[in-house]
């Protein structure tokens, strides 16, 4: 019974993850200037993501404190780790929602988006896809691959930041504010990559019982 309960909770995490995956996909399309990308979908999914995150946490707590159930070491790791994974997925979606609003504004105002931003979003999207596979297969080696892939997001973030900051003080007010928005957007995407690595570390711990440093 307890094994089945944890399995069902993990399936809910995968459902949550797929919603986050769709959100990041839409954000990537927005940053690429795709006018068919759906901000309303991103906003609707945010509510569902928040709801699922809370439900997953409550179910894990209920199972942990159930007196009639005895848990093994791996099961305890799962019940402790799963709410953390769900919360980080929810946080990732929050950042994505902020980027989506920025991208919609930029497209509507016909503002050219720096090429690094859609590249960062595409990298994060790939990381989320790999995370879901990692969680599904309980793969420590896949978790390590995800940690390594975050370097591309960090590289693009640093590249764009240096380029935008190099002459920020010399720009007229409107242009400086626009560059500042680009910087905020890059920062949110960088945090999304960080969230992916945090989840990968947690999946590694769930699978092996060992901590992974990065």
Description of the structure:
With 214 residues, the chain is mostly helical. The chain has one domain: Methane Monooxygenase Hydroxylase, Chain G, domain 1, CATH 1.20.58. 83% of the residues lie in helices and 0% in strands. The chain is elongated. The chain starts with a helix and ends in a 6-residue tail after the last helix.
In short, what is this structure?
The chain has 214 residues and is mainly α. It has helices at residues 2-31, 39-65, 73-108, 116-137, 140-165, 173-208.
List keywords for this structure.
214 residues, mainly alpha, Methane Monooxygenase Hydroxylase, Chain G, domain 1, elongated
Structural class, from secondary structure content?
mainly alpha
- For this structure, the CATH topology is Methane Monooxygenase Hydroxylase, Chain G, domain 1
Unreliable segments (pLDDT under 50, ≥5 consecutive)?
Answer: none
Biggest β-sheet, characterized? none
What is the number of helical segments per DSSP (H or I, 4+ residues)?
A: 6
In whole angstroms, the N-to-C terminal distance is 36 Å
Q: Determine the CATH superfamily.
A: Phosphate transport system protein phou homolog 2, domain 2
CATH class: Mainly Alpha
CATH architecture: Up-down Bundle
């Amino acid at each position: 019974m307890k094994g089945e309960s944890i399995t069902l909770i993990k399936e809910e995490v995968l459902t949550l993850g797929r919603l986050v995956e769709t959100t990041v996909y839409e954000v990537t399309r927005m940053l690429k200037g795709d006018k068919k990308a759906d901000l309303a979908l991103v906003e609707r999914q945010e509510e569902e993501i928040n709801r699922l995150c809370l439900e997953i946490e409550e179910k894990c707590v209920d199972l942990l404190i159930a007196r009639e159930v005895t848990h093994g070491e791996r099961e305890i790791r799962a019940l402790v780790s799963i709410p953390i994974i769900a919360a980080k997925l929810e946080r990732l979606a929050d950042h994505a929602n902020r980027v989506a609003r920025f991208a919609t504004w930029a497209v509507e105002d016909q503002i050219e988006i720096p090429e690094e931003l859609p590249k960062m979003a595409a990298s994060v999207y790939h990381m989320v896809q790999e995370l879901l596979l990692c969680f599904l297969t309980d793969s420590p080696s896949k978790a390590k691959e995800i940690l390594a892939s975050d370097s591309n997001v960090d590289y693009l973030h640093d590249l764009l930041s240096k380029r935008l900051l190099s002459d920020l003080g010399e720009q007229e007010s409107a242009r400086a504010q626009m560059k500042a928005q680009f910087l905020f957007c890059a920062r949110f995407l960088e945090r999304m990559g960080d969230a992916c690595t945090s989840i990968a570390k947690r999946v590694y711990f769930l699978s092996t019982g060992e901590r992974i440093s990065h």
